[in-house]
């Protein structure tokens, strides 16, 4: 059952992560943005990039924002690689599709400074199969697919290790990759695919780690997961999903109002739960904690990349 994590719980849990190494979740091209709404409440359209515009929270969000006099346009992308560059280039005002770890990896790799201005939810990452009903049923030597982007690959490998399918040489970190898999001690082989392709790989593999945005593409429901991580584990906090914008816009009052609407509107929150099959855990982490967590993950990411 999903339940809201209070700011106090998150603040305490994030503080507990201070000594834990952190890491890097997550399409038609958008046309140039109109400039976004400013703090004075202009009529400009605020363009927000997402992956999965059809999810019910977005229609509810547009309506709730309109009730507050803010016009938003939800811009849909087919994969995770495009919303951050589009935000950096000013084609979007905000995006909401990723967690802190993914944003940190983008900022470090691209030399950019996108920043979180609000949290939305933590989503469990699941392992799915159309051939086997449980992890125990997967035979030795079978192949399991994981996403090939750094953040989701590491998290997926941690799920596989927790499920007893593989063993990671390092014990498992947010920087784990295929090279970290101890093949001699692992039950299955692991292959990496682009995140949007893991659902279509199911006929060819024993199981696959599938991001929430793509579960429906495989004709699956979230209840079909045969293994998943625990969103309430403190180690999952770097995977809090966020609204992100350019650093110079982080204090934009209209953008902050939109975050408040998302976090508090009952219809938006109901849509969020519906879209996730009631697996999302809504969170309202203080922005200062999000920024602190991002800075820590970025530092660890830079160190890992040498």
TrEMBL record:
The keyword Zinc-finger appears for this protein: no
Topology relative to the membrane: Lipid-anchor
Keyword Lipoprotein: yes
Source taxon at top rank: Bacteria
GO cellular component: membrane
PROSITE patterns linked to this entry: PROKAR_LIPOPROTEIN
Keyword field: Lipoprotein, Membrane, Palmitate, Signal
Signal peptide: 1-30
Localization per Swiss-Prot or TrEMBL: Membrane
PANTHER family reported for this sequence: D-METHIONINE-BINDING LIPOPROTEIN METQ, LIPOPROTEIN
Family to which the UniProt record says this protein belongs: Belongs to the NlpA lipoprotein family.
Protein name: MetQ/NlpA family ABC transporter substrate-binding protein
């Amino acid at each position: 059952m999903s339940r809201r994590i209070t700011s106090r719980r998150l603040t305490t849990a994030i503080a507990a992560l201070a000594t834990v190494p952190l890491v890097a979740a997550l399409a038609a091209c958008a046309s140039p943005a109109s400039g976004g709404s400013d703090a004075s409440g202009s009529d400009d359209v605020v363009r927000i990039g997402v992956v999965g515009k059809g999810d019910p929270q977005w229609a509810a969000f547009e309506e709730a924002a309109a009730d507050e006099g803010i016009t938003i346009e939800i811009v849909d992308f087919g994969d995770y690689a495009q919303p951050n560059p589009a935000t950096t280039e000013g084609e979007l005002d905000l995006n909401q599709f990723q967690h802190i770890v993914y944003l940190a990896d983008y900022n470090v790799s691209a030399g950019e400074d996108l920043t979180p201005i609000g949290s939305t939810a933590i989503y469990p990452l699941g392992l799915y199969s159309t051939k086997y009903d449980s992890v125990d049923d997967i035979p030795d030597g079978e192949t399991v697919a994981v996403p090939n982007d750094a953040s989701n690959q590491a998290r997926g490998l941690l799920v596989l290790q927790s499920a007893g399918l593989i063993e990671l040489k390092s014990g498992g970190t947010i920087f784990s990759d295929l090279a970290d898999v101890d093949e001699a001690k692992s039950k299955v082989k692991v292959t990496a695919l682009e995140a949007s392709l893991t659902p279509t790989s199911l006929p060819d593999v024993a199981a696959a780690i599938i991001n929430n945005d793509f579960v429906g593409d495989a004709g699956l429901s979230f209840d079909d997961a045969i293994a998943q991580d625990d969103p309430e584990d403190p180690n999952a906090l770097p995977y809090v999903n966020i609204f992100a914008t350019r650093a110079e816009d982080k204090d934009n009052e209209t953008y902050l109002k939109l975050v408040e609407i998302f976090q508090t509107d009952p219809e938006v929150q109901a849509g969020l739960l519906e879209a996730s099959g009631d697996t999302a855990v809504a969170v309202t982490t203080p922005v200062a904690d999000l920024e602190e967590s991002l800075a820590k993950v970025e530092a660890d990411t830079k160190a890992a990349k040498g």
